[in-house]
Amino acid sequence: MTTPLRDRRRAAAAQEILDTAREHVAEHGPAGLAVRAVARSLGMTVQALYHYFPSRGDLLTALITQAYTELADFVEAAAEQASAGDAGLDRFVAAAEGFRTWAINNPGLFELLYGTPLRYYQAPVDGRTTAAARRLGPIFIHALYHGLSPEQLATVDFAPISPALAGHLRGLPPEALEALPPSAAALFTSVWAHVHGLIALEAFGHTTFIEPLPDLFRAAVQNLLADARRRIADPGA
Question: Is the pLDDT of residue 87 over 60?
Answer without folding.
Answer: no
